[in-house]
Amino acid sequence: MSFINSVTELLQNSNQLQSISDTAVLDTELLLCFALDVDRAWLRTWPDHQPEAIQVKTFKALLSRRLTGEPIAFIIGCQGFWTLNLTVSADTLIPRPETELLVEIALGLDLPKVSRVLDLGTGTGAIALALASEHNNWQLTAVDSQIAAVNLAEINRQNCQLDNVSIYQSDWFSQVPGLISSPQYHLIISNPPYIEINDPHLSAGDVRFEPASALVSGRDGLDDLRVVIEQSPKYLDSNGWLLVEHGYQQGTAVRNLFANAGFTAVATQVDYNNLERVTLGCIRERH
Ligand SMILES: C[S@@+](CC[C@H](N)C(=O)[O-])C[C@H]1O[C@@H](n2cnc3c(N)ncnc32)[C@H](O)[C@@H]1O
């Protein structure tokens, strides 16, 4: 028996996405889930279900957007990160799985039970909210230069019901001294923009839909990392840590920046693809 526009048939539209996506089947499932307001388990349970015409129309419209290359997260308006489901928008980066490594390393550091943590360039709030969800006695301060990102992070904070995160607009550290009475942090964490302005990857794939303010950082991609690394020692407590994400070819340059700024125990960790992705260092003495 054949079904017109059954779940199974609609999922066959994944063929159309093969040329633009490495995850065509998953993408199609997510779009159909969004159109039907169900989860992926439901699709497997009801393969012969025939959605209403309006739902099929919605699904096809979503599929057309994906065919233009628009990221799934922007189409459905959310993205999973750590254990959280975050609202996303075109005002900032879609949180990436690599960035979970930053969270994982931060959680493994030997930090005080009640730690003060600063997340620079918070975007959706991903890093700060993930840390806050794991340690409800940590005090998180999160900043972003883009007011639209600050507002988005605040929406996510409220949705995740996390009271231990405060979010502000700030150009890196510019507003930080006024944010808390003693601006000394046990951990500063950042996934800043780090792509070279002429990097050809900027005109391909998902990043075409993300803002330059979240991606691009000067000719060598290091402009923002320089500011963050050079200024962090002033804001770190003794034995405080700085943890940054960077491009996979920036490891050596970033370790040099850490060493020049007075950090010790400088080390780089590789991501799940075995690429240098996160560098950390400790300030033994306050500057
Ligand atoms: C690569 S995105 C990271 C977003 C988020 N932390 C994440 O990991 O998904 C970089 C973020 O830094 C913010 N940003 C760029 N320049 C900044 C600046 N001068 N001061 C503060 N934030 C900045 C951007 O708006 C963007 O949200």
Task: Please describe what this structure looks like.
The protein has twelve helices and nine strands. The chain is of the alpha/beta class. It folds into two domains: 7-69, Orthogonal Bundle (Helicase, Ruva Protein, domain 3), CATH 1.10.8; 81-283, Rossmann fold, CATH 3.40.50.150. The chain is elongated. The site of S-adenosylmethionine has 23 residues, from α8, β4 and α10.
Q: Spatial order of the strands in the main sheet?
A: 5-4-3-6-7-9-8
Cα end-to-end separation: 75 Å
In the CATH hierarchy, what is the architecture of the largest domain at level 2? Answer: 3-Layer(aba) Sandwich
Class computed from helices, strands and strand pairing: alpha/beta
Shape: elongated
Look up the CATH topology of the largest domain: Rossmann fold
Computed Rg: 21 Å
| Helix and strand sequence | HHHHHHEEHEHEHEEHHEHEE
Number of helices: 12
Proportion in helices: 25-40%
The CATH homologous superfamily name of the largest domain equals Vaccinia Virus protein VP39
Mean pLDDT score: 95
Q: Name the bound molecules.
A: S-adenosylmethionine
Major β-sheet annotation? 7 strands, mixed
Q: How many runs of DSSP E, i.e. beta strands?
A: 9
Strand content: 15-25%
Question: Quick gist of this model?
Answer:
The protein is α/β, with parallel strands linked by helices and 287 residues long.
Summarize the helices and strands and which ones pair or pack.
Layout: H1 7-11, H2 14-17, H3 24-36, H4 40-45, H5 53-67, H6 72-76, E1 78-81, E2 84-87, H7 99-108, E3 116-120, H8 126-134, E4 139-144, H9 147-160, E5 165-169, E6 185-190, H10 212-215, H11 223-235, E7 236-245, H12 251-260, E8 264-270, E9 276-283
Parallel strand pairs: 3-4, 3-6, 4-5, 6-7
Antiparallel strand pairs: 1-2, 7-9, 8-9
Helix pairs in contact: 3-5, 7-8, 11-12
The structure holds S-adenosylmethionine.
